[in-house]
Amino acid sequence: xxxxxxxxxxxxxxxxxxxxxxxxxxxxxxxxxxxxxxxxxxxxxxxxxxxxxxxxxxxxxxxxxxxxxxxxxxxxxxxxxxxxxxxxxxxxxxxxxxxxxxxxxxxxxxxxxxxxxxxxxxxxxxxxxxxxxxxxxxxxxxxxxxxxxxxxxxxxxxxxxxxxxxxxxxxxxxxxxxxxxxxxxxxxxxxx
Length: 192
Prior knowledge:
Layout: H1 9-23, H2 30-37, H3 41-48, H4 51-76, H5 81-90, H6 97-112, H7 114-134, H8 145-162, H9 168-185
Helix pairs in contact: 1-2, 1-4, 1-6, 2-3, 4-7, 5-9, 6-7, 7-8, 8-9
């Protein structure tokens, strides 16, 4: 009797994510994952149950990876405004415009699924808290600087995507340096 091939779920989900990143969410099927992983489609169906459950598991695994990457970067940067900028620049390495655009298809899947959307909301709160801590010793920093900075970061990514001149990381760094300089130069309570 032939021995069945086994593979940890983490390895299978990494293969599933690679398919999603290369072919978009609709490219992930039990057949395509079977080819990529070497596992039989029936084995994958037994593990994940349905295509929707497989896609959700793969995207939850991606959130786990983003959580880990965020924690690693947060531990490595200084707890000051420059560290906040370095953290967000480190999270911005999407590659070229085509890779970023494909990532938006993944974001669409996150927004459609309540469990994935909840993971995004949790990450937002954690990221804002990490960024807030980078400004804890900065005079006149708004109480919600982390969320403001995260919003500026996401906006800079989007604006770069419309006119992707230079690298995304250079664009993000330039945008965030300017944002922090303007924000911290403003007088408390001023509307400038």
